[in-house]
């Protein structure tokens, strides 16, 4: 079915003003001040978007789709995420990750869950690997996983954390080069995604690595970079060298972004992700487990609203929540934009940024702020 969204104020992310938008076969087919309703092409759905804002669906590049945790024992493993826990917050593309537990959760299960969420309606990718060394893979190595497995865009590993396997510089370099070469041959980004813990070294291993090998800095993405001022300062240095940093959504995110921008970090080198559905374990000074929380994809949208409330334009704010991710993962022109030939992943809000509709690949998944498409085993009355 063709769909015409009429008279929306479009941020693509640049301000296009009031426009109509035509969706065909899951993609944006036309954008114009006025699009006549097509005749003779079957049923056409018309959506009135007057006084509403339309922008790209958000990209969340760090989600524990299988659940996370387990540091407090088997009962502290968080459950798998559901479709509506993602879409109700305007997110239409996610990247799934493993965490501390690469034993009871596997890359095989991660990819299968990513495929399930894609079947249910959104776009998904994932990383091979976890905190472990050697890195868990499905094929012989990280390179082959990236080349041969459709969903895999790189590898995840942990540094500067008492839960990590403490990879040596050689091991870290080998993983990163395998991911890069796999990306080159497989036509993907080939990213090494680094969980950065609260350890004193921060991302110093990345600076050391770049000194001794020819790995392009663009293939590295450290996350959780708002843990400390020291990490933020390292992040500023990293972005000025051409790298990207990822900041976990939450109470610290706005202040962290303001700080790194004021210190000279380029706006297009910073992304925000939720760490959604992952555990948020708490440890005492001796690294003993003392409690657990669970992350939510919703923190991404809460931060998006907070960034705008703090004075950012919609165009600026959208860079942190989709535009920069699309560019970094090689998805520009397809994701993170409202443009002809792009996927019809759309976030529609009122003037106060309350979500009205969420569209993914041309299908409305959220209407009037509530999910209308549910995951296979979701119970709508309990979601």
Brief write-up:
Helices cover 26% and strands 28% of the residues. It is built from 9 helices and 19 strands. It has helices spanning 84-87, 107-120, 142-148, 169-186, 204-212, 229-240, 253-262, 298-309, 314-328, and strands spanning 2-11, 15-24, 27-32, 44-48, 53-56, 58-63, 91-96, 123-128, 152-159, 191-196, 220-223, 245-248, 270-273, 279-283, 289-294, 346-349, 355-360, 363-367, 370-371.
Q: Summarize the main sheet.
A: 9 strands, mixed
Q: Overall pLDDT, averaged?
A: 94
Strand content: 25-35%
* Structural class category: alpha/beta
Task: Please count the beta strands (DSSP E, at least 2 residues each).
Answer: 19
Q: Distance between termini? A: 29 Å
List keywords for this structure.
6-stranded parallel β-sheet, alpha/beta, 9-stranded mixed β-sheet, 383 residues, 9 helices, globular
